Amino acid sequence: MMLKKILLIFIFVLCVSSKVHAIENYEVVELNDNTSIFKNYVDGYSIQIPKKSVLKFDDNFYKSEINFKDTSVKIFVEKFNSNSKYDSYLYYTLKGIRDSKYEHNITFDGIKSSSIGNMNVIEFNRRKLSKINGDKNNYFIAIGNLPDERAVTFMVKSEREINKKFIMSMIDSFKLNSEIKPYKIKKVRNNTTHYHWDIETANLYREDFLYSDKVTWGLFVHDFWRSPDMSNIENKIESKFKYALLYHSFNFPNAQVRQAIDYCKVSNRNLELTFQTDIKNNKNLIYDVLDGKKDEFLKELALIISSEQYPTIFRLANEMNGDWCSYCAWNTGLDSDIYVEFYNYVYNIFEEAGANKYLIYVFNPNGRSFPNYKYNNESMYRPSSSRYDILGLTLYNTGTYYMDEKWEEFDSLYDNLYRDCIKKYDKPFMITEFACSSIGGDKIKWTENMLDVLSDKYKKIKVAIWFNGIDLDENKNPARIYKIDTPKETLDIFKKYFKGK
Asked: How does pLDDT run across 386-408, given as a tens digit for each residue?
């Protein structure tokens, strides 16, 4: 009799478990043969979804993604603070799409009613991208105002015309009726292995990023391989910068990469190669890449790196969470998947060419997201952790030339960023580019303080690269003077620092 009771209990538990799928941050409960209820305990809502949906989340649990058939639905719940309100969120979120009509064909931009109130809806499509398997190029985005200073955004995309009636029925089922529970983010592991690298590249990674107990320095100098500025600065500080920074894009011939690497070989330093795309004549070149139209250029670049056989830091499409970058979701229909597809596409071309044996990949969001909304958080853009080796950090003391900017000390810039990254990443860190402007404060004291705290307080930052340049305003006047020798006493601080190392 006891055995029979145990068997019945086991069968009951099995049946219940087939109806409910519970994880710490969410739960899926079967409603009927075709529908389940998804309960999100991070943002406190429920919504009806197709029964066989596949769920995906970013590591910070800012996004819930529901995939069924050839359709994807991403849900974001945005909590506003005193500096951010619904109207600004709505306006700026949709502005990127409205401003990119050359790439995005808008078919509807207006209001649709729902059970949670009026939704601001924009529908659009773009060209099909041949290098994305099952490219979802039809979009439906709905944004609604919620109680208690929140908004909900539904980002829908599909390979075919979107079933708007079905999507609106899903939105109608959205309810703020689930408990909000504490949750833990998923930390990115450092699963970098040395086996795919050649010996010199593996040694560079180990020596500068794994086992080094000091900061290794680099410097950006425009056209450093044919300019005397690098050696002039090094002579003045009586020390050498190990890393040189090169910005590369489709606007420059690949020959400059070979020249830069050859210079690094001769001068016993290493290159941080930054590759970016841009928007040219209202055309976003990231779409051209994913349509195969830039293959020749990328394959040539990969072959140059492969043939040079020299360890190189590769920063692919940095600051993707900033709307000044063409590959930011704000410029690609709010679709951060485009960046991930681009990253993987370039990575695979380089892998096929044998270039990755010599490349240490850096994933480098900006230290501050703009716009600072969940759909643009750096966690939306992360490639597989096996496809990058270092986390790049970037923040500048931009000075006070512009009215909305302020003078910020190094700790003010990097303390919170560093702590946040420690919680989220096991990867080694590097400051891929940074500097202090000469306008608005004491640059000499700023530099002295930065050098004092960097090695002592920020142990995971292994490499730092100073951007030795000038940002100009729209009238070509100097707005942010980042030159390492302006004022010239700044070099004395570096000279003293390097002598004491």
From this structure: 999 999 999 999 999 999 999 99
CA-to-CA separations, 60 to 93, 203, 231, 422, 457, in angstroms, rounded: 20, 33, 44, 14, 26
pLDDT digits (tens, 9 = 90+) for 223-232: 999 999 999 9
| Residue closest to 248 by CA, chosen among 187, 302, 189 | 302
Q: What is the DSSP letter of 197?
A: S
Tell me the per-residue pLDDT of 138-174, one tens digit each, with 9 for 90 and over. 999 999 999 889 999 999 999 999 999 999 999 999 9
Backbone angles phi, psi at 465, to 5 degrees: -125, 120
Q: Write out 51-83 in H/E/C secondary structure.
A: CCCEEEECCCCCCEEEEECCEEEEEEEEECCCC
Letter for the amino acid at 470? I
Q: Characterize the bridge pairing of strands 26-30 and 20-23.
A: antiparallel
Nearest Cα residue to 361 out of 329, 315, 319? 315
Q: Tell me the whole-structure pTM to 2 decimals.
A: 0.94
Query: Who's near 281: CB < 8 A, 6+ residues apart?
Result: none
Q: Is the dihedral of CA 237, 243, 249, 252 positive or negative?
A: positive
Domain ranges across the chain: 17-172, 199-500
Residues 6 or more apart whose Cβ sits within 8 Å of residue 151: 77, 78, 80, 86, 89, 90, 143, 144, 145
CA angle, 301 then 305 then 310, to 5° = 160
CATH code for the domain defined by 17-172: 3.40.1000
How many Cα atoms occupy the beta-carbon half-sphere of 138 within 13 Å? Answer: 12
- Tokens representing residue 422 in the block: 């420690």
Q: Which long-range contacts (CB under 8 A, 24 or more apart) does 266-269 make?
A: 269/218, 269/240, 269/241, 269/242, 269/243, 269/244
Of 359, 363, 360, which Cα lies nearest the Cα of 339? 363
State which fold the 199-500 domain adopts.
TIM Barrel (3.20.20)
Three-class SS state of 392 = strand
Q: Which residues contact 471 (CB under 8 A, 6 or more apart)?
A: 478, 479, 480, 482
Cα 186 to chain centroid distance, Å, stands at: 16
Confidence (pLDDT) at 20 = 52
Whether residue 214 contacts residue 501, with contact meaning beta carbons closer than 8 Å, is answered with: yes
Type and span of the H or E element at 351: helix 337-352
Share in percent of the chain as helix, strand, coil (round to 5): 35, 30, 40
